[in-house]
Design a protein that fits this description.
The complex is a heterodimer of chains A (about 110) and B (about 240). Chain A has about 110 residues and is an all-alpha fold. Chain A has one domain: Non-ribosomal Peptide Synthetase Peptidyl Carrier Protein, Chain A. In chain A, about 50% of the residues lie in helices and about 0% in strands. Chain B is α+β, with helices and mostly antiparallel strands and about 240 residues long. Chain B has two domains: about 120 residues, 4'-phosphopantetheinyl transferase domain (Ribosomal Protein L22, Chain A); about 100 residues, Ribosomal Protein L22, Chain A. Chain B is built from five helices and twelve strands. In chain B, the strands form three sheets. Chain B has a six-stranded mixed β-sheet with strand order 7-12-11-10-9-8, with helices on one face. The two termini of chain B are about 30 Å apart. The chains are: A mainly alpha (about 110), B alpha+beta (about 240).
Chain lengths: ~110, ~240
């Protein structure tokens, strides 16, 4: 089932991601912006993405399989906080139809 | 000749094979980072190093490159760490650019990883083979996300504690993703991993890719190495 996120919802998701990264990686919120690279600038690791995805799946009751999210992220690589927020918007909004509007891979994998 | 490898304590791991070598470097022994960087990194590599802001990230990034270059020196591929640059292709996979005219042995593929105390590097001289390595600390962190692994299958010869089991599975998935350049997206795909002999695994992904994998436990860290034989496509154009 797909849903539509308002600008307010998106803002809340973005802020939640910032807070999550700040708490988990022990970094000041002031140092986390949309262009901040999660691995290079904040010293995150790949597991932090898995934790973020699981967190949002629970918070928004998203039923998408993790492997489907993996396929999506192969087409839409995420490095920055802004890209991660966009991926979460898509996962929450599109749900199980996450891959349906991705006709052909357009972006190179990470 | 620059004597560089002798002052680096590399630990060769027993998860290599003929033509494949994996080593670990304890970052606690990495002192004088900036002077070491100046001795080891080519100008292009120094540019990338300078763009890294986080001190721990810089340390791990440098440690992984020192680990790989020390391996190349000991294999006789180069006699000076500056004779080779570790580049990245469009998928973010590392590849080696050697100075022209080197008589040394060939390394066809390489992989880097770092986590906490350790940096790790893998090098393969096998043609048409991709290597991926990953080092992960065994911790309760993955237990909170056990549900994310529900679609994976892991069959082991001897039972291992849940934390170690999940860490092994994650390290194998990461190493497979690194072998093909699939990034975090590929690491989230489902795999079937079957231990065929102690520390040796056959791995299949849900998209039909097959890998040979090895794992090793050292001081609370799991190190995984995955190999995939394939037609090597030219992904390095433009670099």
């Amino acid at each position: 089932m797909s849903r539509s996120l308002s600008q307010e919802d998106k803002k809340e998701i973005y802020e939640h991601i910032r807070q999550f990264l700040s708490d988990e990686l022990d970094v000041s919120l002031d140092d986390i912006g949309p262009d901040t690279k999660i691995i290079d600038d904040l010293k995150g690791d790949s597991m932090i993405y898995l934790e973020l995805v699981e967190d949002f799946k629970k918070k928004y009751d998203v039923k998408v399989e993790i492997a489907v999210i993996g396929r999506y992220l192969q087409k839409h690589p995420i490095y920055t906080v802004g890209q991660t927020a966009q991926a979460v918007y898509d996962i929450v909004e599109r749900g199980e139809s996450l891959l349906m509007s991705d006709a052909e891979p357009g972006a190179p994998a990470a | 000749m620059v004597v560089f490898a002798e002052d680096v304590e590399l630990m060769p791991l027993p998860i290599g094979d003929e033509g494949v070598e994996v080593s670990l470097l304890d970052l606690a022994g990495l002192v004088g980072m900036e002077s070491t960087a100046a001795r080891v990194l080519t100008p292009e590599e120094r540019g990338e190093y300078a763009r890294l802001g986080h001190p721990s990230r810089r340390r791990e990034w440098l440690g992984a490159r020192i680990c790989l270059k020390a391996m190349l020196l000991r294999r006789g591929c180069v006699s000076d760490p500056m004779q080779c640059a570790i580049m990245k292709d469009a998928r973010g996979r590392p590849w080696l650019s050697f100075a022209p005219g080197l008589p040394g042995k060939i390394v066809h593929d390489c992989s880097l990883s770092h986590k906490g105390r350790f940096a790790c590097a893998g090098a393969s001289s096998l043609v048409d083979t991709r290597i991926g390595v990953d080092v992960e600390k065994v911790s309760p962190r993955l237990l909170r996300m056990a549900g994310a692994f529900a679609g994976d299958r892991l069959s082991l010869i001897r039972p291992r504690p849940p934390e170690e089991r999940l860490t092994l599975l994650w390290a194998v998935k990461e190493a497979c993703a690194k072998a093909v350049g699939g990034g975090i997206g590929m690491a989230l795909r489902h795999v079937s991993c079957e231990e065929t002999a102690e520390g040796r695994h056959q791995v299949w992904t849900d998209e039909g890719l097959e890998f040979q994998a090895r794992d090793f436990l050292h001081d609370g860290y799991v190190i995984a190495m995955c190999l995939r034989t394939e037609e090597v496509q030219s992904q390095r154009k433009g670099h």
